[in-house]
Amino acid sequence: MPASCRPRCRRCATFIDAAKKGQITFAVFHILGPTIASLDEITETAAYLGDARYFTVKNFINNTHFFEWDEATHASYFKQVKDAIELVIPKLNEMATEQVELASVPYVTFIANKKQSGEPASYSFVLRGYVRHWLGNVWAEYDRINLTDIVAARAPTATVTKVQARG
After folding, report:
1. Residues sharing a CB contact under 8 Å with residue 36, sequence separation 6 or more, in sequence order
2. What angle separates helix 36-49 from helix 71-78, to the nearest 10 degrees?
3. Rounded to whole angstroms, what are the CA distances from 8 to 3, 28, 30, 46, 52?
4. With a threshold of 0.85, does the pTM exceed it?
């Protein structure tokens, strides 16, 4: 057990027990980087997951390139996590990202051309279009993995592609 978790072990155990009893839905969204070090985190995390839903997330927030792991490397990491599901968050245009951050509003508020106060804003029509398209792709990924069903603790309505150990 990592030293950082030891002071909270009782709380961690209570949380995991609540998930086992069906009192809460436990899902882990593991944001992966493009390195082996990021994959090593899977090993550390897997021991604590129990029956949690496990999602590996490739977030292309910048020009990150995720290498395709050879079969042996892939199997050595992903066999440790039962039924891991891969989620891919596409890259948003850098200028659009910057403008949303400068506006300090949620994506949907930016798309709606509103300020934090709810008053009309004058954000770029083109950048709002980029954000609208990107957000539509993100929501499509959420739909693909049945995120609403998972959060609502319902049985998934569709089959999703799972990352499975090869070999």
Report:
1. 73
2. 30
3. 10, 18, 20, 18, 19
4. no
Question: How does pLDDT run along the chain (167 residues), one tens digit per residue?
Answer: 455 554 456 566 677 777 778 788 788 888 887 777 877 887 777 777 767 788 888 888 777 766 666 677 767 777 777 778 888 899 999 999 999 999 999 999 999 999 999 999 999 999 999 999 999 999 999 999 998 888 786 555 545 544 444 33
Which amino acid is residue 156, in one-letter code? P
Residue in the structure block whose two tokens are 């027990």: 17
Residue 72 makes CB contacts below 8 A (sequence gap 6+) with 167
Task: Label residue 53 exposed, middle or buried (CB < 10 Å: 0-12, 13-18, 19+).
Answer: buried
DSSP, res 114: B
Longest CA–CA span in the chain (Å) reads: 57
